[in-house]
Amino acid sequence: KQEVTQIPAALSVPEGENLVLNCSFTDSAIYNLQWFRQDPGKGLTSLLLIQSSQREQTSGRLNASLDKSSGRSTLYIAASQPGDSATYLCAVPTQYNFNKFYFGSGTKLNVKP
Amino acid sequence: GAVVSQHPSWVICKSGTSVKIECRSLDFQATTMFWYRQFPKQSLMLMATSNEGSKATYEQGVEKDKFLINHASLTLSTLTVTSAHPEDSSFYICSASAGQADTQYFGPGTRLTVL
To answer: Are B108 and A43 inside 8 Å of each other by CB?
Structure first.
């Protein structure tokens, strides 16, 4: 069974810092990997999707990398802002059932003004 | 972009009653919808997958008689928590996809509290 781990569980940084969130997964046979943002009491917003054949994806201040062989992905947030405060989740569907997502438990980010 | 809505956004009910949660795809036809449950400070766990017009497929450990899922149209799926108990209190999130390999779009979630 796929297990997805996110480190750290929580992170508090001053505004303007660059930061890295980590995601690891045990089964490297993945279809793709997605990073989501979840605001308190809300649903999920997709941030970035990396296909299994890709190494990274960028959107604005966000950059996600994928190293499938080592079972790792990182989400890099540049010049963090208070509005980035949220919980960030990574999720992987398996190659055998790409509709079945395994989610990490998330990293709760607090960016202080 | 594709929008998925859920109703209600929150509900409080007494133990033993049944609660229905709706998930709608507003601007696309969702052939597949998914239901997730999220306990406080934990991640999302997939409960079941439903395809329009057919029976839902439940994940291991999820009671199908407890969590009734109906996907009668291409824009609506419902989750009914039957005879709810306090341990069913959770955040329920649905997602919808236009096809097997298509992106899943997530709803805003429904907070269920069972007293």
So the answer is: yes
